[in-house]
């Protein structure tokens, strides 16, 4: 009983496969033939018509290439014209900037000459004024000297405070990093 079932199942699977294979093989046979298949060789008229059509197509393509070349040339000329225009504008701006720089230099020279002249005239008056201030400043100590004195007093106050270890660490770290000569 098992065998007849197997053979029936195998027939059922073989049938669709064989139908599919026949359709695939028969499809090219059933395909439509091209128009020129039954005509045989083309006559002279058809050949000349075809030749003329090919010549016209070639002429059209050549005309299109020429037009494209003319357009490219026009675009290149336009780009060149714009580049030249930008170059001229840049030169004009450079010239204007140089003029402004020259004016500024000239004005600075005049200002420095006027300053030198004023310094020369005021030198005597300034010397008198600064002489009085120098004498007064000699009497008073400068800010740095006062600051150094305060710092040394502070160091002496801190010398007795804290443990011996802390005092040693403070002595090591008491040098300021910006004072290289100490």
Question: Can you describe what's shown?
Answer:
By secondary structure, this protein is mainly alpha-helical. The chain has a domain at 43-139. The protein is 84% helix and 0% strand. It contains four helices and no strands. The chain has helices at 2-30, 44-139, 143-159, 164-173. The longest helix has 96 residues, at 44-139.
In short, what is this structure?
With 182 residues, this protein is mainly alpha-helical. It contains four helices and no strands.
Measured as a percent range, the helix fraction is over 70%
Query: Which percent band covers the strand fraction?
Result: under 5%
**Using only CA atoms, what is the Rg?**
54 Å
The general outline is elongated
Order of helices and strands: HHHH
List keywords for this structure.
182 residues; mainly alpha; 84% helix; 0% strand; elongated
Any chance you could write out the topology, listing elements then pairs?
Blueprint lengths: L1 H29 L13 H96 L3 H17 L4 H10 L9
